[in-house]
Amino acid sequence: MAASSSAAASTSCAVAAEANGSTSTIVATTKPTGHHILKIDGYSRTKAMVAAGDSIDSSRFHAGDHAWRIRYYPNGTDRSNQNPDAISVMLELQDAAAAAAAVKAKFVFRLLNKDGEPVPSRTYRSSVHSFPSSDGFKNWGFLRFITHGDLEKSGHLADDGFAVRCDVTVMAGIELRVEPASSLAVPEPDMHRHLGRLLSAGDGADVTFRVAGGEAFAAHRCVLAARSPVFKAELYSRGGFLRPAAAGRPGTRVIDVDDMDAGAFGALLHFVYTDTLPEMASADVPGMARQLIAAADRYKVERLKLVCEDKLSRRVVADDTSMTPTPLSTPTTMTDSTTTGDDPQRRQRRARFLGKFVKFGACFSDRYFLPLI
Fold first, then answer.
1. What CATH number belongs to 7-178?
2. Disulfide: which of 64, 122, 273, 344 matches 111 by Cβ 3.0-4.6 Å?
3. Of 293, 298, 217, nearest to 262 (Cα)?
4. Residues 213-233: what's their mean pLDDT?
5. 49 with 73: CB under 8 angstroms?
6. Where in the chain are the domains?
7. Does pTM surpass 0.90?
8. pLDDT (tens digit, 9 = 90+) per residue, 102-159?
C-alpha cells in the first residue's frame, strides 16, 4: 500500500444579506483540505483472505489539523454476509479522543482508472458528518462503493490492483463578515432626461410632424417605432404616410397630423421620449388629458392612457349625484379624498363615469364643466 497527500484552502458557498447600504455575509469556513490515495495490490488475494466485516486500513494522513485513515473492506462491512459481493470504503477519524468536540467534515471517495484519473461514475460525495457521530461511531463511508463484478468488468484493474482516492474537507465554523458601505454614490437612472434633451434639440431627427396650425415637431423614427406599434407601421411600412423632406431638414420626411393641436401632440411626443407628462397648469389638465387619451388610443400608447385616466378620475367628484354638467357661474364645493373617500367602489364609479365623459365630451358646451377637486 502507498499513500500521498496534498492540502489546499477552500470555503463553502455563502449567503449574503444586505441592509442600509452595507453588506454582511454568513460564511461556512473550512480548514485546509487533504487527500489520500489507497492502492490495493492483489485484489483477488485480499478478497479471498479477508472475511466480511473485516478491513485493511491505510496509513494515517492529515486533513484539517486532524488525523484520518481509510478502512477498506474487500467483502463489505456486514459480518452477517448480507452484502458479500460489494467493496466498502469508510473514513475514520483517528484522533477523536483528543478532539474537544465532534469534528464536522465532508468527504469524497473516487475510484481511479489505470492512469490515476478519477472515474466519474464511481465518484461519491458525502454531506457534512460529525466524527464521531452522536451514537459514538467514528466511521462514515459508502457500504456498496463498487461490487466485485462491476470492478472486474470495468477495465480499471491493472495487474490485479486498483486505487481509491479520498478527499477530506473539515468544517472550521461559521463567521460573519461585514463589508463597509460603498463610498461611491450611484446616481438614479436619467435616460429619460437624455431622451428629453434629444427631442428638444432635434439632433439626428429623421421625421417631421406638421400639426394643425402649421407648427412642426422634429422626431426620431426609431424612438417612435420602439414606443408605438402605430408609429412603427406608419414610419416603416411601404404604405407609410410620408411626404418629401421638410425644408431645412434634408433627409427627413413629413407627416401631417390634422386631428390634434400642437400642445397635445407635443405632450404626446414628450411622453413617448420620457415616459412622463410635461408640466402643465392645473386648469389645463382635464382638457389636455382628454386629448391625450384619444391620442393614446390612436397610437396604442397604453401607459399614457392609464396615466391620463388616473389624473382625470382623481379630479372628478366621487359622489355620483354630483356628476352632472355645471355652469361655470355655479359655485362648486371643493373637496378632496379625505372628505369624499377613495375606496375601490368609488374609484370604479369614477372610472365608469370617466369613460362616458371622455366619449361624449365633445357634446358639452364650453360653458359647462365637471365639478373639479
1. 2.60.210.10
2. 122
3. 217
4. 92
5. no
6. 7-178, 191-369
7. no
8. 888 999 999 999 999 999 999 999 998 888 877 777 789 999 999 999 999 999 999 9
Residue 234's pLDDT is: 87
**Other Cβ atoms closer than 10 A to 168:** 25
Domain boundaries 191-369, CATH class: alpha beta
What is 85-118 written as a DSSP string? TEEEEEEEETTGGG-SSPEEEEEEEEEE-TTS-E
Amino acid (1-letter code) at residue 240: G
Phi and psi (nearest 5°) for 306?
-65, -40
Run of H or E residues at 29:
strand 22-30
Question: Letter for the amino acid at 228?
Answer: S
Within this chain, domains 7-178 and 191-369 share the same CATH topology: no
Give the ranges where the chain is alpha helix by DSSP (H). Answer: 43-49, 148-154, 191-201, 221-227, 229-236, 262-274, 285-299, 302-315, 337-340, 344-360
Cell of 233: 407601421
Q: Quick check: 167 pLDDT over 60?
A: yes
**Single-letter amino acid code for the residue at 140:** W
What is the Cα–Cα distance from 202 to 207, expressed in whole angstroms? 10
